[in-house]
User: Fold this.
Amino acid sequence: GKGILSTTDLETNLSLIARMSAHVLNARGGVLRLVDDETGALSIKAMYGVTIGEVDAASRAGAQEIAEMVASRGEPILVNDAEVHAGQEGALGGRKNLVCVPLAKGDRVVGTLTVFDRISLESLGSEGFGNDDVRFLTVLGSQAAIAIENAKLFDHLISSQDRIRELHKHLLRSERLAALGELSSQVAHEIRNPLTAIGGFARSIERKMAQDDPDREHVEIIIKETDRLERILTEQLAFAKLSPPEFTAGDINQVIRESISLLSERIAAKDARLEVDLQSDIEDVRMDPDKMKQVLINLIQNAADNLSEGGRLSVSSSSKNRTAEVRVANDGPPIPEPMLERIFVPFATTKSGGSGLGLPIAYEIIYEHGGTIDVKSEFGSETVFLITLPLIVGGERRRGPVDRRSMMRDRRRRGRIP
Assistant:
């Protein structure tokens, strides 16, 4: 009992319980099963002294049914040679006997513990398990249930702490983005009018100049750079004034197809191999289709720009754990490690002429949809962007990693940040 209660690691604890119960009862092996908290199914989580093949054979002979009966009744079962039905002994692998007890905490059964094949000890005159063994294993099972629940609570506590750290990290990021958004908006408004005037006068001068005028090249540079600055200012204003999403139940695959269609010429210009794999039976996603299209266009465009001539670009969708996953990958050069850590930070970019706002905007949009966006890029491997969004299942939206917008962003939109 001291050994079982001394560790908070669930996997270690389960293996220890299976091993110790077999050792103490001088048995060949033990199998521990747990009840799934969501489905209620009973499945093997730890084994000692037995192989997967032997467990499968035993399950076909009724060992799984015995465990399920123990879990449903909350009472132990002892099987000896005389109690094995005809035709089952071989399937049980010549098993002499078996004890299965519930792992119960109060009235709630969290699993079962099965110990099998008592090793005969002539000096003790023991030929199989007895009632004393059942009583001992029942007490051990009660302590094991407490240890398992404690380990689960500890895992939940660790997960909660990780979640708190993640939320704190996002809050700090939101505060920085809020201040940056306000500053960007003010600066963009101050610069835009004179910049528009510069570009307009430059175009007017260009129209009046002769084709062979030596200063024409300089004016064209002014126009080109003015256009680039105007695009950056437009993106800054878009970032500073991100409007709340207008949610509807939508088909994420349709949004993906429309985004790819808009960029088909850009992809073709790179002579790229485009691979599209969309799961057909994905449930609807609660989303703003226009904003989601903005995210996907940005990711697919970045992926296409990163490709070498004849490279591969893949876009896929799937559903997992009541979430939709969208994967955008390319086999171009990897993102440098320092940039990878700052990929969603405003103005961080490796693209010539890029504003560094596309991915931060995408991050904010996905965040407000209750989803996540992650990136992985390693040398010799693909660069992968993975979007996860909550599905609408049974008329209700699954709670996503983020279920509401940042209070700081709401305050900023209402003009309450000094």
